[in-house]
Design brief:
The chain is α+β, with helices and mostly antiparallel strands. Helices cover 48% and strands 16% of the residues. The chain has a four-stranded antiparallel beta sheet. It starts with a strand and ends with a helix.
């Protein structure tokens, strides 16, 4: 089974739509291995978005700083999901990074509409609801950055109990 990191961003938490989106992941068959609400500081977000995700290197200082500022608007909920091809499938469920380009039926397509231009006019990162690991290597690094081993739980779901040997 594959693991991926998902973060409900401050705009998601503050809109009160965490449960709606979490339900989508559970209905798709993903198992939650870890979850916590935190308010990450600048250094934590710097490591996540630049040392792991290379956002500043790819998109520039202005976009990087506005993203980190937006991620500090309120608390976030970080979680580890596990499932078959979790990274790729979760990314498909989440949709395009820029919400206006996200297809209906994706999380961003259904819950956000902001574009890069509108976000830039107010000097903020684009409010796009969730973060999801981009690839398997990034998922491993992000999971290790956000969670320690004691926070990750191994268990069998009810479905696994009845479909897998003991």
């Amino acid at each position: 089974m594959e693991r991926t990191l998902v973060i409900f961003k401050p705009d998601c938490v503050m809109r009160g739509i965490v449960g709606l989106i979490l339900t989508r992941f559970e209905q798709a068959g993903f198992k939650i291995l870890a979850m916590k609400m935190v308010k990450p500081d600048y250094q934590h977000l710097y490591k996540h978005y630049e040392e792991i995700g290379t956002l500043k290197s790819r998109k520039g200082e202005e976009i990087f700083e506005s993203q980190l500022a937006s991620m500090q608007d309120g608390p976030v909920i970080a979680m580890i999901l596990e499932g078959i091809e979790a990274v790729e499938t979760v990314r498909k469920m989440v949709g395009e990074t820029e919400p206006k380009k996200a297809m209906p039926g994706t999380i961003r397509g259904d819950f956000a509409h902001v574009n890069y231009g509108a976000a830039a006019k107010v000097g903020r990162g684009v409010a796009n609801i969730v973060h999801a690991s981009a690839d398997k290597t990034e998922a491993v690094s992000e999971i290790n950055h956000w969670f320690n081993n004691e926070e990750i739980f191994e268990y069998k779901t009810v479905h696994e109990q009845f479909t897998q040997p003991s």
